[in-house]
Design goal:
Rossmann fold; 8-stranded mixed sheet
Amino acid sequence: MLIDPGLPPDEQDDISAKVYGDGQELPPPSALTKKSSFAPWHHPIKQIVRDYQWGDAAVRLLSQSRAAERRDVLRYFTLPGADLLDVRQLATAIENFGSQIEYFGFNTGWTPDAADQTDGSGAYLSAESALRQAGRITDNSVVWPDSLEDIAQPNSTAADRLAQQSVFDIVNIDACDHLGYKSPGRHQTLFDAMESLLAHQLRATEPWLLFLTTRADPKLLGGPSVKLMAAIQKNLDAHPDGFGDALADCLGVNKAVLISELNAVWGSTDERFLKLFVLALGKHLLHFYFGQVNFKMTVELVSAFAYRVHGSEPDMVSVAFRITPGGLRIHPPAARPMVALHDIELVHAQSIAAKAKEMWNLETGIQQPQVATDAVSGTARLLEQANYDLEAWRLWLQNHATRPMTV
C-alpha cells in the first residue's frame, strides 16, 4: 500500500499503524480473554476416552510398528473441534516417540478465509499455530469445511479430497450422532461414511486403528441396524455353537433361549444392548474385510467404553478396533472362485465377543479415585492449552446437569 506523502506526518503514522501494526508485541495467550463456554466433551469423562483409549492404543500401535517412517509421522483422520483437543491429546501421548501428527479431516464449521478470530475458525487457527510452533504437527495437516457423509457421495469434493490422501494410521470418527444420522439435504449416513473410510484403508500394509464414538439407541439406528443384525445372524447360522456360546456369554443369557433374547436385547436400552451393538460393529468389520478376498485383514476389538449423554443409562459408546492387513493375495489363474473363510472369522468373532463383554461403563469408572484424578488433570491441561477459564470450568462442572463434579 502506498501512503500519500502529502498527508501530515501524524496521519501517515496512523494509516501505517493500521496497515502494518504499531510495532508493539502481541499480548501473550495468558493475557487474552479466556473462553468460558463449555461443551459436553469438556467433561472429564470424555478425557477417559482420550487418555485410556485413544492415547493408550496409539502408543501401542507405535511401539509395535515395524515401519520406521511411522515413528516420524503419524497420519491421522479426524473430525476435530475448533480447539483440536484430540490432536493435542495424541501429540502428548506419543511425544516420547518424537513423532509428528499429520492430520486430515472435516469440520463443517471451519471457514478457511474467516478473519474474525473470535469464532470457531479463529480458535482453530490459534490451536493449529500453537501445535505447529511446538513441532507437534506437520505443515501438511489440513481440515476441510465438508460434511463427513459427503465422502460416501461419488464425485463429491469431499470424496475427491479423501481419494488424494494415502492411508491413515488412525481413523477417528468422533460423532455426537448415531450411525444412521443424515445431515440436512444429504442421503448418505455416518455409517456410509464409515464404510467409505474402510474402503480407503484397503491399501494399508501396516496395522491401523479405527476409533468410533457414536450414540447407541435402537430407535435411532435406522438402516444400519439391518446390516448390524445381519452380521450377528450370519455367524449364528454358520456357527450356532462356537459363536452362539460366545454371544450368550457376552450378553449373560441362557444359550437355550438365545434367539428370543436377541430380539429383546435389540429393542432394549440397557447395557446388554450396548454390548450387542459393539459386537455387531466388530462383526460387520469382519464381514467387510473378509469379503475383500484379495485384501484380507483381521479385526481386533481393543477396547469398548460406554457412558451416558442423553438419558439415565449409558447411551454413547466409544470403541477402538485394530485392523491388521494380511497382505495382497494373488490367486493362480486356475483357482476356483470359492474361498473358505468361516473358521478364520469364527476365531476373531469369538475374540470380539469376549472383549465386548468387558465393556467399561465410565459412569462407574469415573468414581475410581485414580481414574477421576487422571481425567480431571488431563482435561484441565487441555483446556488451559486452549485458553479456557479453569475457574469457570470448575463452576460449570459443579453445576453439570448430567454428572456434577467438584474439582
